[in-house]
Design a protein that fits this description.
This protein is mainly alpha-helical. Helices cover 85% and strands 0% of the residues. It has 2 domains: 1-50; 64-94. Helix 1 packs across helix 2. It is elongated, with a radius of gyration of 33 Å.
């Protein structure tokens, strides 16, 4: 009976080795499986990194006092005004003008 169980375990080991060889071996299917697993691992690592960066940013914003927040908000508004002004002047200088001349 024990000999039969040992034989079954050996067959199962060989079958699992064959399956792993088929999935991760040196063939097209194995290369696709390896690419998929590495892509998934990379994506999960990037998601964890993004989550940590977001958490750190939120934590830094919570620790910032009101005066720093107001100063940062003013700086952002000033930069926005400067960009808006430069965009307005750019379009004003580079737009076509149509002048209507009338003879009365």
């Amino acid at each position: 009976m024990q000999l039969h169980k040992l034989h079954e375990k050996q067959i199962l080991k060989e079958d699992s080795g064959t399956l792993e060889g088929l999935l991760f071996g040196d063939n097209i299917l194995g290369q696709l499986a390896s690419f998929g697993t590495s892509f998934l691992k990379g994506g999960l690592a990037y998601a964890q990194k993004l989550k940590k960066m977001t958490y750190d940013k939120i934590k830094a914003n919570l620790e910032m006092d009101e005066a720093e927040r107001m100063k940062l908000l003013k700086e952002k508004e000033e930069k926005k005004k400067i960009r808006l002004k430069s965009a307005f002047f750019f379009f004003a200088n580079n737009s076509a003008r149509i002048e209507v001349l009338r003879d009365d």
